[in-house]
Amino acid sequence: MSLTANATAAFGEAYGADPAGLWAAPGRVNLIGEHTDYNDGFVLPFALPQRTVAAAGPSPDGRWHVCSTLAPEPVSFGTEDVGEPGAVTGWGAYVAGVVWALLDAGFEVPPVRIALDSDVPLGSGLSSSAALESAVLTALVDLGGLDLPLEKRPALAQRAENVYVGAPTGIMDQSASIRCQDGKALFLDCRSYEVEQIPFDLAAAGLAILVINSNAPHQHVDGEYGARRKSCEAAAAALGVRALRDVPVSGLPDALARLDDDVMRRRTRHIVTENQRVLDTVSLLGEGRVREIGPLLTASHASMRDDFEITVAQVDVAVEAALATGAYGARMTGGGFGGCVLALIDAGRAEETAAAVAAAYEKHGFTAPTSWVAVAGPGAGRV
Ligand code: GLA
Q: Which phi and psi angles does 114 have, rounded to 5°?
């Protein structure tokens, strides 16, 4: 059964009624620009076809009710429970967080009943949490007729995650889930929130993006993510700039000379060079020189591995195996410490590349990876 059929059936089973409508929001792959978002920098994600679907309709008892095909226990809360960040925990916090952020921004949030289904892989660095937040937010905005323009929605969903759930993430994932368009990559300035939709038709160029889920167990993700963020903020403060985005590549040698901590120097070098790689990738795509972004992807990976220190053995092996099989470039995508790798390959070589990565995994004794070709899909909306 399809996601929409599953969500509709789950709605009927849980609430004995038909939903008023169906809304969906996708997971994402970030083509390039990692950990640059909370440094006010640049990112270039595209939406995955994998998405979270919310079947939703009015709630007769004035409370919010949410169930999911992926969770055994439904969640239910009222205005009184949702008042304080942290009042609702577990997966329900992502939903309650969105309701809380809307209420906190002064919106009259309609009480609704929701049933969810999703095929975004969980805990794989493909933004399953942003897909959940964005699907719920889009449903609430439509059902309540709320005056919340598209460009203001990601910050609200991010607030749900930062303040309510307590994860110090940047704005990329929610922006990707909400603002991406079919067949486009989203060039986002994470300071101004301005976007440019970059045509991203790889098939027309005879190319494809293979996504390889490393299936590495995520370890220390929250603590390490927060530590990277703190280190970047400390470097910006030491350099007297608002954020590391304000250090151009031409100013990097001088900035590095002014930092006396080696870890801080390497974190800074990653962010500054990564921002430039995003800009260079956008330029090359604009000129139709798609294959030439390969070396930028691979350089991004090296920078994450050596300077930002957020890769693990499984993703490094996947990148090396993909490159050895002829990929034009490959890099880890997402927050790090596991998750997925993407490889830019010739369109006909997906199976061969996936097999080469799987063979390398077997040699290392790693749990087998999962690979598929990702095509840029649409952002959140009614379905
Ligand atoms: C996670 C966060 C994003 C971003 C990436 C790294 O996905 O949610 O905000 O920082 O990591 O680029």
A: -130, 140
